[in-house]
């Protein structure tokens, strides 16, 4: 019935105080009271550790499941946003083709920006 580890612990356990001959000089009651064997204490400690580890494992499994759900939701949201960006880029491309005026305006604003940068550069050199 016992596990291999429990049998080993029982076989190597130190004898209890009750198994040892009583000291003739001892008159205190706690000296003659039986003590818990080290294997029983170890087994109780191991049971406590197992219990704590089971609680931790259950908690981690729950957190893992929650994170998976969040991750999947983020994946769906990312795909939705990518599709939206693609639609907007497609619309922008169509709008740019239909509007030839925008190209000249954009070109003019770029040239004006370069001219302003050149003026600032010239002013810096004079100082």
TrEMBL record:
<feature type="compositionally biased region" description="Polar residues">
    <location>
        <begin position="23"/>
        <end position="45"/>
    </location>
</feature>
<feature type="region of interest" description="Disordered">
    <location>
        <begin position="94"/>
        <end position="127"/>
    </location>
</feature>
<feature type="region of interest" description="Disordered">
    <location>
        <begin position="1"/>
        <end position="45"/>
    </location>
</feature>
<protein>
    <submittedName>
        <fullName>Uncharacterized protein</fullName>
    </submittedName>
</protein>
<feature type="compositionally biased region" description="Basic and acidic residues">
    <location>
        <begin position="116"/>
        <end position="127"/>
    </location>
</feature>
């Amino acid at each position: 019935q016992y596990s291999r580890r429990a049998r080993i612990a029982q076989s190597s356990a130190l004898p209890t105080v009750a198994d040892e001959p009583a000291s003739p000089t001892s008159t205190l009651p706690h000296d003659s009271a039986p003590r818990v064997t080290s294997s029983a204490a170890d087994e109780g400690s191991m049971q406590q550790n197992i219990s704590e580890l089971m609680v931790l494992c259950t908690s981690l499994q729950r957190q893992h499941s929650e994170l998976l759900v969040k991750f999947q939701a983020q994946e769906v949201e990312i795909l939705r946003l990518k599709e939206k960006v693609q639609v907007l880029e497609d619309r922008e491309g169509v709008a740019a083709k239909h509007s030839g005026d925008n190209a000249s305006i954009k070109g003019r604003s770029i040239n004006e920006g370069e001219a302003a940068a050149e003026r600032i550069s010239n002013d810096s050199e004079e100082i």
